[in-house]
Amino acid sequence: MPWGMHERVSAVTPIALTIAGSDSGGGAGIQADLKTFAALGVYGTSVITALTAQNTRGVTAIHHVPAAFVTAQIDAVFSDFRVGAVKIGMLGSAEVADAVAAWLEKRQPINVVFDPVMLASSGERLLEPDAVDALMRIIWRTRVVTPNLPEAAALLDMPVAADEAKMRHQAACLLARDAQAVLIKGGHGSGAESVDIMVDRGRDWYRFAAPRIAARNTHGTGCTLSAAIAAGLAKGLPLDAAVRAAKDFVTAAIAAADQLVVGEGRGPLNHFHAWWKEHPIGEEHGES
Description:
This protein is an alpha/beta fold. It has 9 helices and 9 strands.
């Protein structure tokens, strides 16, 4: 018998699943999610929806995985692992989005974090235009949906929110479309603080703020935040606590990101900043 999704997480090892695209540069998507799970003490499993030829300078090609194979991967994971939370990221095509929506409708898992990835941070489109309607089918089956400012605007066909009042309005609009909770990320905004706004079905509002950090390496920020929320839910945290812990983790990973010297463009966050601080690279070889 498959374990399926349980609200009660395994007492031994918390497990999370990421359903997303692969980033060959290692900064976003599946790779960022698995790094995040590992950094936060959660065992990560994965379902790949698309392969991207990608580095720190951008995306040069995308290969979509057939929808039937995406479903086969999900079934393989859930037939063996007790998954405490699912993060859904890049889906790429309408067929894959429909397949994931059908799986959610059939299995009705509890802790699903949906990051509706549409564009790469370098600007390339990561979602086929005809897949947007399928995203709305997914939204109402999730615990929380986490669009950034441009994604929220695209889902609602509205201008990008320019202030917190408009962010709250757009969150309420997405909530009216049957989302369980909406977290609009303000990383694309301006000002001294990076502010995220969340609203849930009880009409409770939450404001998550952190100092805006001027870092060169910010690739994969949205993927990392949604994966960190899933990690918190897999460990049994309430949603608001999971979001706060995720915000703190991402803020620290951005603050340490420029310690990484990889690639010639916008590099990744430093997901293992806490570990590498305790165990500097080269230490085991006696280097100074």
